[in-house]
Amino acid sequence: MSGKTQTLYEKYGGFPGVRQVVTDFYERALDSDIVGHFFEDVNMARLVDHQTKMIAGLLGGPVEISDARLATAHAHLEVDHYHFDEIAILLNETLADAGFDKQDRLAAVAAVEARRSVIIKRSRAA
Length: 126
Hints:
about 60% helix
């Protein structure tokens, strides 16, 4: 036994497993009345590639996306907490359907949640 702890990235199939999760996630996001509009006129194949790298990194995979890069990628959007909450819900549902156990889903969503302040640039008007 090597004593090396298995990452979530490894546990759930590496890059192909993460890519399937991301593809399923965007199918849900596109259908969402809350966040679907963010993906109009977006090259989805390119977005899935980028998001797969980001999620792979968050799950302990070999890719690291800096907070500065995340901030730049979202700077032109009007993402607020309401939108971010919807993304977290959709991600949790997608991970559950992909077979992630509850503890692993919480860890993955927490890793995304830790980037909330990097992605959100405004609060929803009352």
